[in-house]
Amino acid sequence: MAFAWKAAGITYNRFLTVSARVVRRSLKEDKRIAAERRGESDLKFAKWENGRQGENKALNTANEEAAANSAHQSS
After folding, report:
1. Which of 45, 44, 43, 38 lies closest to 21, judged by CA?
2. Residue 50: band (very low, low, confident or very high) from pLDDT cuts 50, 70, 90
3. What is the DSSP string of 17-65?
4. Alpha carbon 47 to chain centroid, angstroms
5. Do the Cβ atoms of 21 and 39 come closer than 8 Å?
6. Where on the tree of life does the source sit, at the highest rank (predicted)?
7. CA separation for the pair 44, 60 (Å, rounded)
8. pLDDT value at position 75?
9. What is the pTM for the complete model shown?
10. Rounded distance, CA 16 to CA 18, Å?
C-alpha cells in the first residue's frame, strides 16, 4: 500500500505543510493565532541553472504557488 501523499503526487514536505496548516486552522481562535505565528517562516531560496543563481523567492510564497498549481492540474 502506497502512502497517501505519494498517491496524491506531492512530496512529503508538502504533505507536512498542508497537514500543519489544516491542524492550525482547526484550532479555536486564541490558540489558532499563536499557532499560525509559529507556522510562519522567513526562508528564501534560489534555483540555480547553468551555473547562475536565479531569483530569490520566499519559501512560503513558492509553496502557495506550487499548491495552487497542483490543485489546478488535478481539477
Report:
1. 38
2. very high
3. HHHHHHHHHHS-HHHHHHHHHHH----EEEEEETTEEEEEEEHHHHHHH
4. 17
5. yes
6. Eukaryota
7. 8
8. 61
9. 0.46
10. 6
Write out the three cell numbers for 56. 530569490
Dihedral, 26, 22, 38, 72 alpha carbons, nearest 10: -140
CA proximity to 41, closest of 27, 61, 55: 61
State the cell numbers at 11: 512530496
Residue that is written with C-alpha cell 481562535 in the block: 29
Q: What are the angstrom distances between the C-alpha of 34 and each of 2, 15, 27, 58?
A: 34, 22, 10, 22
First to last CA, the chain: 24
The cell numbers describing 36, all together, are: 499560525
Using CA atoms, how far apart are residues 21 and 40, in angstroms rounded to an integer?
10
